[in-house]
Amino acid sequence: MLFRTPSDRLPEMMTAQRFDPIRQAAATRLAGEPLRGGPAEHDGDGGGSKGGTESGTVTKTRPKTKRPNLYRVLLLNDDYTPMEFVILILQDVFNKSREDAVRIMLHVHQKGVGECGVYPYEVAETKVTRVMDTARKNQHPLQCVMEKQ
């Protein structure tokens, strides 16, 4: 009788598990229970002994990641900030094209409030701060706020 080490049986075990869809389904369904009738029960000595290592499929569950809450960044209308300054803010801070910036500026002017974009909390907070700092440096009363979507 030839003595075989577990490392000698490794390719045999992998082959049996890899190409046998019935065993794969059973291993997935039972998740951790040893496979029946597989190489684990047959250690090659011809007898009915069950000495040897059992094999199974280990499944690892990944935690579900939750999408971050989104916040709308809004510009508020005032009677003192020039329209051209608002357009420049929209282009510089929010990366809007000239056409989009004019459209948003007119919406703010007519409706009193306009949405500049929707971002995760940290990004929205940074954009609001940039708008407020730039307006303050240029002595304009422009107001920018964020609200949860």
From TrEMBL:
GO terms for biological process: proteolysis. GO terms for molecular function: peptidase activity. SUPFAM superfamilies: ClpS-like. Residues 66-144 form the Adaptor protein ClpS core domain. Keywords: Hydrolase, Protease. Residues 31-64 are annotated as: Disordered. Involved in the modulation of the specificity of the ClpAP-mediated ATP-dependent protein degradation. Belongs to the ClpS family. NCBIfam families: PRK00033.1-2, PRK00033.1-5. Binds to the N-terminal domain of the chaperone ClpA. This is ATP-dependent Clp protease adapter protein ClpS. The gene is clpS.
